[in-house]
Amino acid sequence: MIEGGSLRGKAIAELARLRPTQLTLGFAQVLQKQEVTQRHADPHDRAALRRFMRRHRIKTIAGPGGALFIVDHHHWARAWLELGYRCGPVRILRDLSRLSPGAFWKRMRALGHVHPYDERGHHLDVQALPATVMGMRDDPYRSLAAFTRDAGAYRKPGNAYGDFRWAAFFRERVEEDFGTIAGFALALTQAIRLAGSSEARRLPGFCGGGAKK
Questions:
Q1: pLDDT tens digits, one per residue of 85-108
Q2: Domain segments of the chain: what residues?
Q3: Distance between CA atoms of residues 185 and 110, nearest Å
Q4: What CATH number has the domain spanning 2-137?
Q5: DSSP strand pairing (58-62 vs 68-72)
Q6: Collapsed DSSP state (helix, strand, coil) of residue 132
Q7: How distant, in Å, are the alpha carbons of 10, 43, 79, 185 from that of 16?
Q8: Is the Cα torsion angle 116, 12, 1, 84 positive or negative in sign?
Q9: What is the pLDDT of residues 42-54, one digit of tens each?
Q10: Was domain 140-200 assigned CATH 1.10.8.10?
Q11: Sign of torsion over alpha carbons 36, 70, 58, 6
């Protein structure tokens, strides 16, 4: 699974064997990352693509049996797999491979690395997590939150839980047809306005209405 055999530091891993710590993705966000990757996929300059992918190295933790669990950049992993890449660069932040499964998940929860929220925002048990990123479900509110942040309506939270809090915030307030470009654009307009409102002031990354990158 890991080229080089190290359970700490930088490595190359099989994307299809990386284990998610989340249930959902924003599929629109995955498509965006596919487009960005393809712009760097110059067949005459493979080194440029490798440099690009290393800049978005997937952050993982080694768990029981040496399996790698993604703690950041699930979207990049899914995007690269769908583009046909077999392997990708990873950074192994911690080696928890000697822990039992129960102790491992307890430690992961303590570290704030497990977010099993489904596409309706319900918190499920870790047993519901898919085996690979290809089994992750679409939550359009995750895409909405990401694009709202990209527009500068709020700053990137310090951890993944912050992203889920923004998605939950918009889920309660924005109801549009995410299946159409016009519907998503309208939802984004509403989300940007809401992100700067007093209702969002307790959320991580709140900018107080000023668009800041």
A1: 999 999 999 999 999 999 999 999
A2: 2-137, 140-200
A3: 37
A4: 3.90.1530.10
A5: antiparallel
A6: coil
A7: 18, 23, 11, 32
A8: positive
A9: 888 889 999 999 9
A10: yes
A11: negative
pLDDT band at 210 (very low <50, low <70, confident <90, very high): low
- Separation of alpha carbons 120 and 158, rounded Å: 23
16 burial type by CB count under 10 A (0-12 exposed, 13-18 middle, 19+ buried): middle
> Looking at the chain, how many residues does it have?
213
Look at residue 82 and tell me whether its pLDDT is greater than 60: yes
Report the distance separating Cα 207 and Cα 213, nearest Å: 10
Buried b / exposed e along 114-135 (16+ C-beta atoms within 10 A): bbbbebeeeeeeeeebeebbee
Question: What are the CA-CA distances from residue 213 to residues 13, 60, 111, 166, 208 (Å)?
Answer: 32, 26, 27, 16, 13
Cβ contact 72:64 at 8 Å: no
Residue keyed to tokens 């822990």: 99
108 contacts: CB under 8 Å, gap ≥ 6:
21, 61, 63, 69, 96, 114
Which pLDDT value is given to residue 158?
A: 84
Alpha carbon distance 19, 15 (integer Å): 9
Euclidean distance between CA atoms 87 and 1, whole angstroms: 9
